[in-house]
Amino acid sequence: MSSPVHCPLCLSPRHHALPVAGKGYYRCLACELVWMDEADHLDEGAEKAVYDGHDNRVDDPRYRAFLMRAFGEVLARVSPPASGLDFGCGPGPALVAMGRESGFEMAGYDKFYADDPELLSREYDFITSTEVVEHLADPRAVLDGLWARLKPGGVLVVQTQRVLGDERFRTWRYRHDPTHIVFFAEASFRALAARWQAEVEFPHADVAVFTKP
Question: Which segments does the entry list as coiled coil (predicted)?
């Protein structure tokens, strides 16, 4: 187990070890992020094999209801026609379909299933990312990149389960997915908002909404 130098989100050097089930994890003492030791990460082939086993169909009403926790926040804040990006759309881009059905100009990016780098050079009125940020080895760089693609007044909606205390983390089912390597606390999102000089809201237990000045 290799000790990391700093938190991959806020770059603080202050952290403590949080080993669980034979894997190395660390918790940032500044922003409360928890991340897995790089030595325990899956390689890309094994990671994609896990995603290939997901059954997230565009027309699945239960999946759409799940995504509405994030997309509903877009509908409440942004009026069509407006441009949106679903980052990490996966092989069944249901949120892209939902956006287009609602009158938005909608695109979907995914490094495994829809890898079009040109989409990451455009500007958008809103960006969604549902059940994605927990898979990011470098969350600071990726989230900063998405923030840079937002137009002034735009919104970034992130959906991921939030980590609570250390003891809860040790027994947390969300941790069992081997592709989940970084876990955000409310304080983690507040640290991002402070760095971006943005507003952040928490309308659901697993949703954070950032508004760009």
Answer: none
CA–CA distance, 175 with 24 (Å, rounded to integer): 12
DSSP string covering 15-60: EEE--BTTB-EEEETTT--EEE-GGGPPPHHHHHHHHHT----TT-
Both tokens of 72, joined, read 């509903």
Strand ranges (E), the chain: 15-17, 25-28, 34-36, 83-87, 105-109, 124-130, 150-159, 182-183, 199-204, 207-211
Phi and psi at residue 203, to the nearest 5°: -70, -20
Q: How far apart are CA 31 and CA 21, in angstroms?
A: 24
- List the one residue out of 3, 2, 4, 11 whose CA is nearest residue 140: 11
Q: In the block, which residue shows the tokens 């990312």?
A: 129
pLDDT at residue 3 in the model:
52
List, for residues 160-208, the tens digit of each pLDDT value: 999 999 999 999 999 999 999 999 999 999 999 999 999 999 999 999 9
Residues (pLDDT < 70) of the chain are: 1-4
Which residues 6+ apart lie within 8 Å of 186 measured at CB? 32, 162, 202, 208
* Alpha-carbon dihedral angle through residues 195, 77, 204, 24, given to the nearest 10 degrees: -40
pTM for this model (two decimals)? 0.95
